[in-house]
Amino acid sequence: MSIIAPVNQPTQPVEPEEGPxxxxxxxxxxxxxxxxxxxLGFLLMVVFGRTGxxxxxxxxxxxxxxxxxxxxxTLPTGIVISILLAGITGxxxxxxxxxxxxxxxxxxxxxxxxxxxxxxxxxxxERIPVPGLLFGSLSLAVPLIFGxxxxxxxxxxxxxxxxxxxxxxxxxxxxxxxxxxxxxPLLGLxxxxxxxxxxxxxxxxxxxxxxxxxxxxxxxxxxxVTGLTGFLFSELLAPNAATLNQPPKFERINIPLLSEIPxxxxxxxxxxxxxxxxxxxxxxxxxxxxxxxWGLRLRAVGEHPQAADTxxxxxxxxxxxxxxxxxxxAGLGGAYxxxxxVGAFGKEMTAGAGFIALAAVIFGRWDPIRATLAxxxxxxxxxxxxxxxxxxxxxxxxxxxxxxYLVTIFAVAGLVGQSRGPAASGKPYIxx
Amino acid sequence: xxxxxxxxxxxxxTPTASPEPAETSRWQNVFREITTGNAIxxxxxxxxxxxxxxxxxxxxxxxxxxSAGYFFSRPGDMLSAAWDAVSGAYSALFxxxxxxxxxxxxxxxxxxxxxxxxxxxxxxxxxxxVALGFRVGLFNIGGRGQMLIAATLGGxxxxxxxxxxxxxxxxxxxxxxLGGALWGGLVGLLKARTGAHEVITTIMLNYVAFYLVSxxxxxxxxxxxxxxxxxxxxxxxxxxxxDLLGPNYNLHFGFILVIGxxxxxxxxxxxxxxxxxFRAVGENPNAARVAGISVQRMYVYAMLFSGGLVGLAxxxxxxxxxxxxxxxxxxxxxxxxxxxxxxxxxxKPWGVFAxxxxxxxxxxxxxxxxxxxxxxxxxxxxxxxxxxxxIAAPPLVRAIFRLPAPGAPRRRPVPNVTQEVxxx
Lengths: 432, 424
What we know:
The complex is a heterodimer.
Chain A: H1 29-47, E1 53-57, E2 70-73, H2 74-97, H3 104-122, E3 127-129, H4 130-156, H5 164-182, H6 185-209, H7 214-237, H8 241-244, E4 252-254, H9 264-268, E5 270-272, H10 273-291, H11 293-303, H12 305-310, H13 315-341, H14 353-363, H15 368-391, H16 397-416
Parallel strand pairs in A: 1-3
Antiparallel strand pairs in A: 1-2, 4-5
Chain B: H1 26-36, H2 38-60, H3 62-68, H4 75-97, H5 106-109, H6 111-135, H7 143-160, H8 167-194, H9 198-219, H10 254-271, H11 273-283, H12 285-290, H13 295-321, H14 334-344, H15 349-373, H16 378-392, H17 394-401, H18 419-423
Helix pairs in contact in B: 2-4, 2-16, 2-17, 3-4, 4-15, 6-10, 6-13, 6-14, 6-15, 7-8, 7-9, 7-13, 7-14, 8-9, 8-13, 10-11, 10-15, 11-13, 14-15, 15-16
């Protein structure tokens, strides 16, 4: 907070989500962070630059429209990108100097350029399958997005949802069993939603009825679900794997026409049903929260329950049912593990995805679209490492694996800064 | 959140009028105090959780399932099968964690209890760290990373440096605690300087620490020369914690250190100037700021202490439990278990100590339960989490056992809002 120095004259209206700031703040954080990354990029791409040619493969073999491979000479590309990065840094510094807000798109462009530069550098004399890279990123991001949406709904209504991990795991477990028994992936999907709702019921009952600290319930629920699924897995699923743990996976569905668009088509429109449900869910949650009566009430309860109660909204009921809805959404994400990607339940198979989703919620500032983007970023970063380990990157693989988390820390510290949740999130409402 | 207040009156007011104190006898008063007190809730919570665990053990037992097929012709079969399964599992749990009656001498029989204390040692240390964070309104999920960094620095001192016995141990200990404190303090610094939410940064730093240690083990200064195994060299004898009860028991000096850490945390939070500021920030950062406390600085200090205590758990692993060299899984989930321990201990030092011993008992007993009865270890997670849930909701336990609500009925229920709420 020490950096904040209010300026009298706002030169640009500030979005309401920006928190308490009412004036544009002359903060050098963004240029400094960009500068650091520019120097790092320059060192990597030019000083320690590699010679050769990087090949970006833009089309898959099954595409209708074949794009030619893009050949980038590694070192010159690095030099050009370094210059562009330096230019953007300088421009942002100029904008701060003249008390303008550095727009998010400029930072995004910076990020994309840096990424292209890095990919070019890493893939000297190698081929990078761009559609494969993006496709895998989306796949890894799907459960994170569902989890983050569940988190956004729950926290917007005023209940901190640390139990995303538990909801994902419960969804994965139940969908595996139900889909294996019925041989119907759709029923498995439904069962995953029910399982997520059940976890949410406990969260809601303890935090709303018994006023137990929501973080406590969330953390404990994660342990409880881990224990329950682990116990039942060892006792039931492992001995009867053939009948109980062989769910049919969803088939990929190619959407006609859309799936033939170069690059975008193979990535977004040759996916399974769960992914299409995810697109709808993101749009629905966004529209619902910000443009419907339901969303207005939900946000009112999360921001100021007393005021909401005064105008006749049933705070307890709203919270209870929306937390349950959040559980259903997160449960869908769990089903993706068993019905979409892996194909069988494994002990603790979510492996902390719920916590990453929680980070995406906060990173996305409790906004469904931004949380989705944050989840996509996490997915991309994890998959980047997979791709680079295949083509053989000159950096030790551990550092590649570390990169997404480091970038997140930098981003959260430098660009997002103090994030503010819904005002009443985490506080039980006691009607007086 | 002091112990005296803890019979948290979170109940809704019940219409049943409490009996006039003058009319009740002394014994009735005593009885009432026992049934409404905090201790009874804890005991009943443990019992309830064990009961749920028993149901799960019975339902998944193959003998029980088999005899359930002819339940209506011979119900006794199923009941005795269920009893066998449950009593077998729980007696194995007890004998693995407290006292083994099958051993002839007391010295052998008590060995499981020393195991319990050995398992409890890192849980208490890390639990204290998480609890300290909670009291300042910080949610430290970064136990894993802090433990790993502590193990890295302390472990390196333990196997690479030559020092006389005793001094070597202290040096390794200090290095480990410092490592944890720095990794934790980084989070505090980021929060203070930039407002980055500590939940994000701690989770991210967990992964960073994990991959950093993996790299160091594979190709860095933790690598064992001439080995492809990602495992560090063994700690030198001069640095290892000495055994408290001789070589037959695993209990080591770390337990004494943890008692010391508990006293220190108690003093820090309850008696020191800094602890007062910590709690003020935890209760209400805005009020603390108005009162002239630098909230930012308190965040940094609190995370330094929190990380240092978790670091103690990390160094305890290297110098006490796994002295033959460590891998990247040296934290073995303690950083996350510590959150539950801190919650069960209500973020109070001695509460954390007791919770740590209880969880240590579950951990020690679960292995013998799995070995003797084939009950998966995961059942312990279920029981542990249920205990925390039930203890956190006294009205639920009272409702189940039909206990009276404590004291005179209040007009307004007071919420059970703790520092953990603020930490989110």
